[in-house]
Write the structure tokens for this entry.
Amino acid sequence: MNGSWQFSGPTPPLDEADQRWTEQVRPEGWRNPRPVGRYNLVVIGGGTAGLVTAAGAAGLQAKVALIERDRLGGDCLNAGCVPSKALLASAAAAAAVRGAAGFGVSVTSSSVDFPSVMRRMRALRADLSPHDSAARFRQLGVDVFFGEATFTGPDRIQVGDQELQFVRACVATGARAIVPPIAGLTRANCLTNETVFSLTELPRRLAVIGGGPIGCELAQAFARFGAQVVIIESAPRILGRESSEASRLVEMALRADGIDVVCNARLDRVERSPGSQILQLDVAGVLHPIETDAILAGVGRAPNVEQLGLDRAGVKWDPSRGVAVDDRLRTTNPRIYAAGDVCSQYRYTHAADAMARIVIQNALFQGGARLSALTIPRCTYTDPEVAHVGWSAADGNPPRRGIQTILVELDRTDRARLESQTAGFLQLHLHAHTDRIAGATLVARHAGDLIAPWISAMTLGWGLKKLGKTILPYPTQSELLRRAADAFQRERLTPGVKKLFALWHRWRRR
């Protein structure tokens, strides 16, 4: 599969917004241009990595071609960040209404109009689609081709009945959702993030397979819309990449929204019953049936590499790991680079954007930009959010000098208490015996925004003492920064230092 994103079946436009969206990212009647001469850069895949690469290269006056098999915009616009965050915003509004009494506000109704929620999502997606549109990229000077792309040699690509020659190429074909090979699951019309946003009716009962970021985010949204939701996770806890305390707080929040979280459970098979499905869960060797109306798989993604003809181009690849690249994002063919989900463990939109910029520097100008030099954060957009950057205990192998950890609970900030948002914390990892930041984890309603200073500090090489000089507005949750700096300074006040200070002040009193 060559596209950065693909539907799991026919999805005709549902309304006027869908028609606007489709006309932008896959215009009906689009005619591919006729290539003339060699391209400086041919980009395969119109997701974030491909679009940023193509736009940046064209802006630097390179002759660029962009090939997309399905819709421009990739997973982020079409079936990821944009539609999911639109749903999460509606879900947060529903939760706020239901919790209004705790703030002394009386609300007479708290029902959710799910079709209206989905119409809002589709309208927002259509509103944002012009930025990724075929027309915009043509105006930027990019030759946009729709169709299957296949390498026919080390320096040429076939699309349709045309062959494109290149000086450099970039594979940015992204990844697709995985439906695990479980008996009966495919016949149960299992949803993924690529199909769930086409729903027009709220499932009364929803089973989510996988307690990772996608599973937890969508499970919470649908529970807040009014569905009965269960999360099935094979590991001992949800959000396994995060700290155990972060996982615990998110699980508590999910349960407070009425979600049943079942860990250490393996889905053995799915059976059909009239009007529903029966999930047979294996928990410690005992099968437990769960009846549901819809199933959503959120168990990960697989890179789109199989049908690109990479072998003919001399590019090494693996069906699970994707395209093999070095630190400069070069493949085993020095003419060809890769960026985004197809070659990286960092499967985030912001990481794809950053990798695209590395490709532009290195492919067009023989630069030395390196992936390892990037500081890449991540965020799970549950309520509360979990944001992380740098080293964590889950990574193991702490830095050579060791780690000093500072923990500041969110309820130490007055703003969190005033807004009844005290479930959270800042966990800061410092290189031992210094104030240099090795990593940070934030759990808070807006953790993705609050973690920005720590990302900047790590990128710029700032220490906690310099950050601690920052004056922050009161009252805000960003005061966590000052609280962490104060905690660091207090830990430096060893008994010996305190004794010296006492002697100094005693002498000053003479």
User: Anything to note?
Assistant: The longest strand covers residues 162-171. The chain has three domains: 41-72+133-177+301-375, 196-300, 384-495. The radius of gyration is 25 Å.
